[in-house]
Write a structure and sequence with these properties.
single chain, Rossmann fold, 2 domains, seven-stranded mixed sheet, 16 helices, 24 strands
């Protein structure tokens, strides 16, 4: 397998291996940690060892949103540690990057740039770094002076030259999965760097003291937690619980739930420290008590990570929080291009006829004009046109056509007040840092009676409620906001602008069908099982009732 550029154009530096066996919730947390806290580009291989259909399908949906994650399904011939070792031996052949890492499903990094920190531990004869067993773990028979594969990072070439295999030996003697790491590295005169581990049974001053787990720190000063290992994975019958099976299962689920929640909170807290994100109040009403709707992963260059969509209980606006921190309004190119053709072609009311005022044509501004093809068409229809475009290359081509195109971002004074008869917002409204400020600026530019046209996803529609985070037009993190008809009306009412045309169009068919057939949105499966004619009829009915996922708005300034 050759090393290919990951999304964003950067070849991966690290290959990360994980094994799943009915532990999708652990894997999902780990993927959130990796995308939120890693400094370097990486690729992930996950081998599922014959999990239940429910767990595997959940894992598959999680992985489908991350193009740098490859999921491998196998039916293990051996269970427990032997099956785990077989899966790791299978995946090591895919390591084609300078560095490799192994991560237990129930061991999660919690420190920003964890990968860079471990890399800096490698030098000279130290070729591997990571977690040993915590020195105060009870009844431990495993060595504590060398990294084990709870979380370890290594130079890939050394691992392959030593011919490491991960099958266990004599488990009673401490030769569990990956025991060859220590033996073969030391036999070759090489060393491993270890983190400082503490078991919370006896160390009660760490952030996870309310659960029974291992906490890892860079050294004995224990200044900031680096990672944590629950140590039970998907095994509720672990000897760490009561011998009574019913009590063991209850204790397992209690510990697991508490540990997952605590680690997720630590990941989010660490992520907020990163300079690329910021926490904001509601743009529509200013409230600060929004509640979480869901989280969804995205891999988009510097915007990689898990993103949380929240909903304001006061005004019902939904938005990303935290969101990307940008110096000025910025639209991800993919979102811009996807919406550009939609916003114009799906407007059944169309543009009003150009006005004749004192012998001059009506004035029209398109925001997100691209290379100017739509402006040329409107110019031919009699409009006096101009554009604003964020892509410098596209803006230059539009100017090459003899069109007037201004630079982005929008500035309050870049267009004279009350000077325009029509504004077409081709860029997605939800891509701006403050839709309120944008609409205030645009409506100030319009003459009385001027038209504002734009298109956006209708987050309050039946289609959006059905597909939820699987909706193909969600556009996270490019779309910072998701609007409903009610929130759009509330935005515009503050600027003496009244909606006189609102429509949706039947795009539900393609989106729901694609998602259901791919397995990405099981909620759409019932729809796809209908006969095709019934599907198309339902799609049109949904649109006619104003419940399709995308709406077009045409508003007039009073």
């Amino acid at each position: 397998m050759s090393t290919e550029a990951s999304p964003g154009g950067v070849a991966p530096l690290i290959t990360i291996l994980m094994v799943n066996y009915n532990s999708h919730d652990f894997i999902r947390l780990n993927l959130k940690a990796l995308t939120s806290l890693s400094k370097h580009s990486f690729q992930v291989f996950i081998c599922d060892n014959g999990s239940s259909p429910e767990d595997f399908n959940g894992l598959r949906r999680t992985c489908s949103s991350l193009p740098n994650v490859t999921l491998i399904a196998r039916l293990q011939s051996s269970s427990g540690s032997m099956g785990h070792g077989e899966a790791l031996d299978l995946m090591t052949r895919f390591i084609d990057t300078p560095y490799g890492a192994i991560l237990d499903a129930d061991c999660v990094p919690l420190r920003m740039h964890w990968d860079q920190i471990l890399m800096e531990m490698l030098s000279g004869k130290t070729r591997i770094a990571g977690t040993p067993v915590a020195s105060n773990s009870p009844n431990n028979v495993k060595p504590i002076d060398f990294p084990l594969m709870f979380l370890c990072l290594f130079e890939s070439r050394t691992l392959k030259e030593l011919g490491i295999r991960f099958l266990p030996g004599d488990i009673a003697a401490g030769q569990d999965t990956g025991w060859e790491l220590r033996d073969k590295y030391l036999a070759a005169g090489l060393h491993g760097a270890v983190l400082h581990g503490e078991n919370t049974r006896t160390y009660r001053n760490g952030p996870l003291s309310e659960t029974v787990c291992d906490e890892y720190y860079l050294d004995g000063r224990r200044e900031a937690i680096f990672c944590s290992h629950l140590g039970r994975g998907s095994a509720p019958n672990s000897g760490k619980y009561s011998r009574n099976q019913a009590a063991a299962l209850k204790a397992y689920h209690k510990d697991k739930t508490a540990w997952l929640a605590a680690c997720e909170a630590l990941i989010e807290a660490e992520s907020r420290l990163a300079s690329d994100r910021e926490t904001i109040p509601c743009d529509l009403c200013g409230g600060n008590d929004a509640t979480k709707l869901f989280e969804t992963p995205s891999f988009h260059g510097r915007f990689s990570g898990f993103w949380k969509l929240v909903k304001c209980p006061t005004c019902s606006l939904s938005y990303l929080n935290p969101r990307p921190r940008l110096e000025a309004d910025h639209i991800l190119a993919s979102t811009h291009q996807a919406m550009a053709s939609t916003v114009v072609s799906k407007m059944p009311a169309g543009l009003p006829a150009p006005r004749e005022a004192g012998g001059t044509s009506g004035s029209l501004l398109e925001i997100g004009c691209g290379e100017g093809s739509r402006l040329e068409r409107w110019k031919g229809e009699g409009w006096d046109v101009q554009g604003i475009e964020p892509d410098p290359g596209a803006a230059a081509k539009a100017r090459g056509r003899g069109l007037t195109v201004k630079d982005f971002p929008l500035l309050a004074g870049s267009v004279a007040a009350s000077s325009l008869d029509a504004i077409v917002l081709t860029l997605p409204l939800g891509g701006f840092h403050s839709p309120r400020k944008l609409l205030e600026t645009l409506t100030a530019w319009l003459k009385p009676g001027g038209e504002l046209l734009f298109s956006c996803m209708d987050w309050g529609s039946l289609e959006a409620r059905l597909l939820g985070k699987d909706h193909p037009h969600l556009g996270i993190p490019g779309n910072l906001y998701q609007f409903s008809t009610a929130t759009i009306h509330r935005y515009l009412q503050d600027y003496d602008v009244k909606i006189h045309h609102h429509s949706t169009y039947p795009d539900f068919l393609n989106g729901a069908r694609r998602l259901a057939l791919s397995g990405e949105a099981p909620s759409a499966g019932i729809y796809v099982r209908l006969p095709e004619k019934a599907q198309r009829a339902l799609s049109k009915v949904v649109a006619a009732l104003g419940q399709s996922g995308t709406m077009t708005v045409q508003a007039r300034k009073k």
